[in-house]
Amino acid sequence: MPSNLSATSPLYQLLIVDDSPTNLDLLLATFGASYELRISIDGQSALDIISSGYLPDLILLDIMMPEQDGYEVCRKLKSTSVTSNIPVIFLTALDSCEDEAKGLELGAVDFITKPFNPAIVRQRVNTHLELKQHRDQLQILVAEKTREVTEAYEDLKQIHEQMLQQEKMASIGQLAAGVAHEINNPTGFIGSNLNTLQKYVVKLNEGIAFMEKAIMATDDFDVISQLKKMKRQLKFDFVLEDIEDLIGESKDGIERIAHIVRNLKSFSRVEDDTLKLTDLEECLEGSLSIAWNEIKYKAKVNKQYEPLPQIPCLPQQLSQVFVNLLVNAAQAIEDQGIITVITRREDNWAVVEIADNGSGISPENLERIFNAFYTTKEVGKGTGLGLSICHDILEKHQGTITVTSKVGEGTCFTIKLPISNS
Predict the structure, then answer these.
(1) What contacts 61, CB < 8 A, 6 or more positions away?
(2) Are residues 228 and 302 in the same domain?
(3) Which of 49, 70, 300, 420 has CB atoms 3.0–4.6 Å from 63's, for a disulfide?
(4) Among 390, 415, 419, 392, residue whose Cα is nearest residue 404
(5) Within this chain, do residues 87 and 107 fall inside the same structural domain, yes or no?
(6) Same domain flag for 302 and 231
(7) How far is CA 189 from its chain centroid?
């Protein structure tokens, strides 16, 4: 007997479809005590019962019935996913091999000819119900294992993507270090040449001034006139004055390049897990320098720094957070806008706010932006890992990152870091 025919288990539901009162009475006597039974005297009414939502565990189906025979009923049951797995046993007076083959071909699990032995019918019904029970349990197990495998695959895919991202970041770090080194050498000799050129210009000015005095001391007015004419034509005084300005501006540019190189070296340097006391304002300035190429054409930067004590952190990782938020802020601005960077102290927390007046983030996206691989950017323009990595870095620092945003008005990220992690 099937396991759930015990007194404590629910009864199996059988649908008996037969137009013979004699057969119905016999089947009711055979199964009535052990099963929940429903009766139908023709094929269409049986289909109507099932269409109303009743799904029996097994169907005993006569073949020769008015209007719609059992073959057609079975064909319709097997053609629908909801009912295709219900076992159908043909119980019929047809006894040829062709009839049995046709019934089994249509999807019936058994074919019993009339007149039938009640004990044999009961045993076959029980056998097919047990098979159905095992099949259903197996399907549940397969579905569960499939779900577990799918989840494991997704986890592995995420780990793979994170490893790829880490490799990319390492490659970017190596590239940045290489670029910084390559830039540093020509920057060095350009700066040295500018210093030498500045000294040469001083000497040229002294020599020119001496020669002018010597010429002006002569009585040869023709020479003096030609000298003055040449100075006007060549704009000599302007050139000498402008050379100093050009050298000064070039030296300032060299210093800016050197500052970017120092920041690139710092950003790309391999960092251990030892916390270092760091000036947040200095870290923000370095991050602004790295992100400046993304910002300069899109936004003005409004800095509102309050004095803060140095905080224990991993400065390169913190710089990665700031660079990511600054680049995101610039990308959120379509034409021209403002990025505001604020620092302040709240109790034992150092607070950094990075805000923009860009396009903003919709409420449904706002809840998910720190999830790994979630991005609102176009395909190919974002990995969906930036903010997730920021969140992980700040969590490692025992800090927090929160966001507020309004569509069309802008977004503000607020970072809180412990001033002391003791």
Answers:
(1) 17, 46, 70, 73, 74, 88, 89, 90, 91, 108
(2) no
(3) 70
(4) 415
(5) yes
(6) no
(7) 45
Give the count of domains, the chain: 3
**Amino acid 272: pLDDT:** 56
Contact partners, residue 116, CB within 8 Å, separation at least 6: 91
Evaluate if pTM is beyond 0.90. no
Kindly state whether residue 152 falls inside one of the protein's structural domains: no
Residues near 397 by beta carbon (within 8 Å), at least 6 away in sequence: 313, 314, 317, 318, 417, 418, 421
Exposed/middle/buried for residue 197 (C-beta within 10 Å: 0-12, 13-18, 19+): middle
Residues 221 and 360 in one domain: no
Q: Are residues 39 and 165 in the same domain?
A: no
Q: Are 290 and 230 in the same domain?
A: no
Residue 133 sits at φ, ψ, to 5 deg, of -60, -45
Half-sphere exposure of 203 (CA within 13 A, CB side): 6
Question: Which 3 state secondary structure label does DSSP give 241?
Answer: helix
Q: Which of 90-99, 267-276, 366-375 has the highest mean pLDDT?
A: 90-99
Range of the domain at 369: 272-422
Is residue 421 located within the same domain as residue 284? yes
State which of 221, 250, 270 marks the end of a domain. 270
187 is a domain residue:
yes
In angstroms, the CA 241 to CA 246 distance is 9
Sole residue written with tokens 């089947």 = 27
The contacts of residue 241 (CB under 8 Å, 6+ apart) are none
Contact present, 173 and 267 (Cβ < 8 Å): yes
Note whether 262 and 179 are within 8 A (CB).
Answer: no
Helix (H, G, I), strand (E, B) or coil at 360: coil
User: Other C-beta atoms within 10 Å of 115: how many?
Assistant: 8
List Cα–Cα distances, 251 to 183, 200, 261, 264, in angstroms: 15, 15, 15, 20
| 19-57 tens-digit pLDDT | 888 888 888 888 877 888 898 988 888 899 998 989 999
- pLDDT-based confidence at residue 151 (cuts at 50, 70, 90): confident
Residue that terminates a domain, selected from 270, 305, 326: 270
CATH code, domain carrying 110: 3.40.50.2300
* DSSP code, position 372: T
Residues 280 and 362 in one domain: yes
